[in-house]
Design brief:
Layout lengths: L20 H6 L3 E5 L2 E6 L3 H10 L1 E5 L4 E7 L2 H6 L15 E6 L5 E10 L2 E6 L4 H11 L4 E5 L3 E7 L3 H6 L2 E3 L11 E6 L2 E6 L8 E7 L3 H9 L4 E3 L2 H10 L26 H6 L5 H10 L3 E8 L10 E4 L2 E12 L4 E9 L8 E6 L2 E8 L11
Parallel strand pairs: 3-14
Antiparallel strand pairs: 1-2, 3-9, 4-7, 4-8, 5-6, 6-7, 9-13, 10-11, 11-12, 12-13, 15-18, 15-20, 16-17, 16-19, 17-18, 19-20
Helix pairs in contact: 2-7
């Protein structure tokens, strides 16, 4: 399974720092604790950073994410036993969204998986990575190796001008501009090896870069030296992903919910919907056939007052759901939210109300994304 003992997967007790901690502080980053690390929530301000990313290009430090490499004899079959993905259709260097499920079909985490030459590269959420590694260790056979790429940093360059900025400094067999959405490859930046994919979690065109942690500051300096780029914090990352209708693990996804009521059927690939053979398949296949009591939906609110996670959703006097994410949309100029509501009320256009400290806010079920994706396909 791995060459390391269980101690490697124990959750650290102290708040940790990322390779760019000093870099963020030197640029005025307001640091907060997030997923066990000190991370910048903002630099110039969340609204300004949100709008800059929508119109130009923003650099996000997502090095708290877990980068894993899974390899060894029988690795493909072993991963298919724990992921509801069809790896036979996964082309080399093309990331794909998937998730870890528990035996009851609840979502333990969502992740990206990429076929590399000698194995599979997984990027998992920072807050769950230690549990994810323990779960994989428990469920992968001894012949399969699990390596935590803990010395690797991860950056995300997002926005409509990201490609122009990155192409000036990154060289590879395929030019940056020729990568399409969810395609990647090996590049060099100032002679430093970088794995780059055209992907991200903002709904905008953009790239994710896995680089050596010891070189992260040099590469971040080079990227931010481009006139289109500014450093962006966690606050704008959250407002961008909410506008893009992208679920956040620990909020919109959890072990209490499955890929089906979470409206993520695409993450259960076609062959797996009939064959099963993965952890949690019994529930997933049953819900595919019978439906679910609740569904994750988008909500658009009237006025300017935002509703936050945990607010209750009503139809008349009947409670019909709970918000999992919520905030003000800078792009749309009104509040938006995600919530699990009764499936009978999940159709776009359904009028509901959200209780915020005893005040009812009018809301309507809205198809997601709230703001159209602008991926380069």
């Amino acid at each position: 399974m791995t060459d390391h003992d269980d101690a490697e997967y124990e959750v650290p007790l102290e708040v940790l720092t990322l390779p760019l901690d000093g870099w963020h502080r030197a640029r005025g980053g307001r640091m907060v604790e997030f997923a066990g690390y000190w991370m910048p929530v903002q630099f110039e301000g969340i609204l300004a950073e949100h709008e800059w990313t929508r119109t130009s290009a923003g650099l996000f430090d997502v090095s708290h994410m877990g980068q894993l490499f899974v390899s060894g004899e029988g690795v493909e079959a072993a991963l298919e036993a724990v992921l509801p993905i069809d790896l036979s259709t996964l082309k080399p260097f093309a990331p794909r969204y998937s998730m870890l499920l528990d035996e009851q079909g609840g979502v333990l985490d969502d992740l990206m998986v990429t076929r590399w030459t000698s194995g599979f590269y997984l990027v998992v959420n920072g807050a769950t990575k230690w549990d994810d590694m323990a779960h994989l260790r428990e469920n992968l056979p001894d012949e399969v190796n699990l390596t935590h790429l803990e010395d690797s940093a991860l950056l995300a360059l997002q926005g409509p001008k990201a490609a122009a900025a990155l192409e000036r400094i990154a060289t590879g067999e395929t030019p940056i501009s020729e990568l399409t959405f969810m395609k990647g490859g090996e590049f060099k930046i100032a002679g430093i090896d970088a794995w780059i994919s055209r992907s991200g979690y903002t709904g905008e065109d953009g790239f994710e870069l896995a680089i050596p942690g010891e070189d992260a500051a040099e590469i971040a300096d080079l990227i931010c030296a481009q006139p289109e780029v500014k450093p962006i914090g966690l606050g704008a990352r959250d407002s961008l992903r909410l506008e893009a209708g992208l679920p956040l693990y620990g909020h919109d996804l959890s072990p209490d919910h499955s890929p089906i009521d979470g409206q993520l059927l695409f993450a259960v690939n076609k062959r797996r919907r009939t064959e099963g053979g993965f952890l949690g398949a019994k529930r997933v296949l049953r819900e595919l056939a019978e439906g679910t009591p609740q569904k994750l939906v988008g909500l658009s609110l009237e006025g300017r007052q935002a509703a936050r996670e945990g607010a209750e959703v009503y139809q008349g006097n009947q409670k019909v759901g709970v918000l999992t994410s919520g905030g003000f949309s800078p792009t749309l100029g009104h509040p938006i939210a995600m919530a699990y509501v009764a499936s009978a009320l999940a159709a776009a256009g359904t009028a509901l109300e959200i209780d915020v400290r005893g005040k009812r806010l009018a809301a309507v079920v809205t198809a997601m994304p709230f703001v159209p994706h602008r991926y380069h396909r």
